[in-house]
Amino acid sequence: MARSGPRRLLVVVLTALGLVCAGLGAGAGRATAASAFPDTVVPAPVSETADGTTFTLPSGATVTSDDADTGGYLAGILRASTGYALPLTVGAGTPGTIALSLSGAPASVGPEGYRLTVGGAGVLIQAQQAAGLFHGVQTLLQLLPGKVMSPTVQPGPWTLAGGTILDYPRFGYRGAMLDLARHFFTVAQVERYIDELALYKINYLHLHLSDDQGWRIAINSWPNLAAYGGSTEVGGGAGGYWTQADYSAVVAYAASRFMTVVPEIDMPGHTNAALASYAQLNCDGTAPGLYTGTNVGFSSLCVSLPLTYTFVDQVLGELAALTPGPYLHIGGDEAGSTSASDYTTFVGKVEQLVTAHGKSVMGWHDIANAGTPPAGALAQFWDTTTSAPNLAAAAANGTKVVMSPANHAYLDMKYNHRTKLGQTWAGLVDVNTAYAWDPGDYLTGVTGSEVAGVEGPLWTETIVTSADIDYMAFPRLPALAELGWSPWSTHDQTAFDARLGAQGPRWKAMGVNYYHSTQIAWPAGS
Ligand code: TNX
């Protein structure tokens, strides 16, 4: 649905008013602040119609839901900040003040979309599937004052504007990657990040589980990988690893946020931790030492060694058994110590192993240098160029592309030269640079229909704490999330910057250590 000119102007004015009101402090309680509906939502919805009314959540409000988990998720957040009891009823019956319903949604919303209606009696979210209800809940939370995200009781009123939002994603793959290898992160740290990502309708979590500096997942058939290969990290710290139960807990937690885990074992390069753990995996039978620096491209599995494929097969087999999602990511990037012919041989064999374990291949786009991957594969573009001929050829043969151009999508690039964390090899990436590209029309020879979606990788050579993760991901991750979800027709830097600014009070309430980019007018106090 088109946005009319006058309404757009009105929204700009009301948004500004909302920001001013937000700056008046928690006690101001001005119902008019909610009039900013609906242009506070990131990612921008497909269509939105405000009807000029408002609705205030009464203290006796109830929640009904056709999906128990999503109802419980919403009620949990609302109870904490409003202090209201918000009793939850699951299943059929009279709709509650807030009703999450799996009936009546238009077919156009698809598996992940929803229709959200705010009327005089309350809020109705309708979806075809539970994922749609969950995404609709995220939009609802963004229509409420930002302090709704606080873990402690805040003063109301809890007012939102009346109207209807119809919404569904542009792309099916909207990912974030976390590198656990350069620095180790605990289950709790990753679950915290999952919760933050879920707010922006991210639906894939790519975990980079092995690299030169560490191996982070226990593999029963090769126990030294984690026990020894996981015992350090960049800078020489103690590292760590997840047990298989830890990994399964993260997979289940992600699923509760409608997010699919994609595990990555990077190979044939980026394998020093594995080579250090087992001498017999090395061509010369000698294990290198553990590595705690930040160079890339110096390690390679031994392509001519039969044991290499026994090893890869067993590792992938255990991971496949633990992973309900469709993809196993085999890395394949920066294999600087593997000859081109060895690389082709190796990637071809490993792709067959992934297929044999019933999974689809995902790899960095370098895997297209080894020819077109098997049907159903995803190749992840990471370079700073706008053309990648071998990738375009694979795409023409059916490989779908996930877009992570490092000069726009890498969450480990510095915002500017004063940024203490991060790297600069792909350039500086402030918010507007993160937002200013079209994933569906970026690579020469790769058409929109060949693009599966976007992903924001966070490499962790310089990232150590959850505060560091927050600082690099926010506010850029929401920009990427919008490129992945919202129709291109909504793309507007000025409008986005205003909507992004409206997230500041939410992150403040949650304790997210976000970067206060000077490109954004953050509301006072956030
Ligand atoms: C490149 S691009 C890498 C990673 C590094 C990252 C640092 C790619 C697929 N690999 O090994 O961590 O740069 O920005």
Give a written overview of the molecule.
- Helix content is 32%, strand content 17%.
- It has helices at residues 5-22, 68-82, 130-143, 187-198, 224-227, 244-256, 272-277, 306-322, 340-356, 389-396, 406-409, 431-435, 466-473, 476-485, 493-501, 504-510, and strands spanning 47-56, 63-65, 88-90, 98-101, 114-119, 122-126, 159-167, 173-179, 204-208, 210-211, 214-215, 260-267, 327-331, 360-364, 378-381, 400-403, 451-458.
- The strands form 3 sheets. An 8-stranded parallel β-barrel has the order 8-9-12-13-14-15-16-17, surrounded by 7 helices. A 7-stranded mixed sheet has the order 1-7-5-6-4-2-3, covered by helices on one side.
- The longest helix is centred in the first third of the chain and has 18 residues, at 5-22.
- The structure holds ligand TNX.
Write a concise keyword list for the protein shown above.
single chain, 8-stranded parallel beta barrel, 7-stranded mixed β-sheet, 32% helix, disordered N terminus
Question: What would you say about this model in short?
Answer:
This protein is α/β, with parallel strands linked by helices and 526 residues long.
The main sheet comes to: 8 strands, parallel, barrel
> What is the CA-atom radius of gyration, in angstroms?
24 Å
**What shape does the CA trace take?**
globular
Number of helices: 16
User: Are there runs of 5+ residues with pLDDT below 50, and where?
Assistant: 1-36
Q: Name the average pLDDT.
A: 93
Small ligands present: ligand TNX
Fraction of helical residues: 25-40%
Strand tally is 17
Strand line-up in the sheet with most strands: 8-9-12-13-14-15-16-17
Between the first and last Cα atoms, what is the distance in angstroms? 32 Å
Strand content: 15-25%
Helix and strand content put the structural class at alpha/beta
